[in-house]
Amino acid sequence: MELSTGEISRIKTLENGTQVSTPLTIQIISNIQPFGNQTAGALRYRCMASDGEQSIVMVLPMHLTPLVDEQKICRFTVLKIVRFNFTKKARPNEAPMAFIIVSDAEIVGTATEKLGNPEKSGAAQQPYQQQSFQQAPAQQQSYQPPQQSFQQAPPQQPRQQQQPHGNSSFMSRVGDTKPNVYGGGMAPVHTGSAPILHPIKDLNPYHSRWTIRARVTQKTGIKSWNKPNSQGRLFSVNLLDDSGEIRATTFTQQVDRLFPMLEAGKVYYISNAQVKMARQQFSTLNNQYELTFDDSTVIEQCQETTGVPQEQYEFVPLANLMKHDKGAIVDVLCVVRGVEDVVEITPRNGPTDRKMVKRDLSVVDKSGYQVRATVWGDDARDFKVPADAIVAFKGMRVGDFGGRTLSLPSIGSLTANPDIPEAHMLRGWYDSAGRNASFQTYESMGGGGGEARTDQIKTMAVVRDENVGGDRAEYFSVKGTIVFVRSTTLAYPGCASPDCSKKVIEDASTGQWRCEKCERSFASPEYRYIFSVNVSDETGQNWLQCFNEVGEQLLGCSANEMIRLQQTDEAAFNQRIADATFQEFLFRCRAKSETFNDNTRVRISVVTMAKVDYVAEAHRLNKLIEAFSM
Fold first, then answer.
1. Which of 143, 421, 443, 576 is the Cys-Cys partner for 449 at CB 3.0 to 4.6 Å?
2. 41-73 pLDDT, tens digit each
3. How far is C-alpha 582 from the chain's CA centre?
């Protein structure tokens, strides 16, 4: 295996942030070490790599992480680097540390030992002279890249030689150590030649010199926060190019400057923003990183929008919502069948002066299901979409009340009658057949509002023998009698916010209940059910876990009421428990294996439950008898 001898020496002379797309063959000569955020899906590796003469630090891309874990990439593996970025990191009283961040690579093979005799040096070298690059020694000619393959950023001009921002080029403004701070108003329109662009999917914290061309697909309103130790404002935008999406957030000092500049649907050149690990609780995008705009961020409107997509969706049919866990984020394309009036609500146990606005919609799609979707805040107030219109929802959160529901959080968005092929196809189907069709609902899956999915009813023995549950959730129905309710711990103190069910902790010094997710405190918690019941049928028994909605249906009151009875009226509390036992129900269940303290077990949770319809059950059993008699 032949390495690209001498190329690392040349690479170290490049400008910081240079993108290189010429193939480079090098060998890993050290142990591969993990670094950064090692949470699931964000693990990366770095190592020392050699071309036979010199070595350099190399950061491997995330898509190669499984190959490292499987030891297919290890010490002495030879890689063909297809595309990478060169970066220099300043060090006090030392030469800058040079390293390459790989975007794409292929495995050539694995040697038994180190190839060549590389120097142990990671420092960047002085920029080369043009003629020295062309007159490389003869022994280095086995791998001679074309001169133009290394795309160097234009050198930064001295401060006194720069032109005023009104006449300077975009890249000169990026290089300026003190960029123009625009006042309020629209972003300036870019003039002059287009800069060298960087794809969104390759942005990372180790490469600071880049420019992206992206479309703003979503823009939030300005939000405020007020904590004991800080207060401020922020807004966010989702940016899209043909390689992917990324979320960008602007905080207090820059909100007034940047908010009027960015408009949804328009395309911009953006540079000089901070790249950080994404906080997934605030984003629906499939990107491990996010951007933060600061006072050095440069934004210019791009008039040439060819090649920049409008929006990216991953639509989920309504019939497949049961395959997604509660809290999952999905995109949905549907027809609005009904629109209810705006409703103003007060959060339970929250501040009395805090009001929330919501609007419920009834939506359907070609899969034959009808689901309740809820929009909040300004989306609810400003919802002007008529019935029978097509709506594309991005970032809907799945709920499990009554089977399955959808809710549009503040980080989601909706587009009425989008100009995309899927919407045109849905419109054609609805106008020809869907308008007069009947639809299934998830409320009927438990056997109450319609025919239950009796083809999936299992006995306890079948549940045990088939070892239901695993890495992926499995859904089924069982018919059984509750013989015991575990009442020692019925509920937990939860957050009083409508969209949050996290556990809250009491602050003994203030008596307030604190939610770390919402970063808010409440005078009292909103108790939510979580308890187990032992359910038995003619073949065996099993423990099923019940959550809040099922608990309210089973015990006939809220968790707050049950906790009050437990503390003040033990007889009434015990009577509620007794009334719930020896009742027969049809349970819609979800089974999935969970690991805790290195112990793995299958947990079966109740999704919905309903009283047994004995007429329908008699018909089901009759069909089974007829099937056996054939």
1. 443
2. 556 788 889 998 899 999 888 888 888 888 889
3. 43
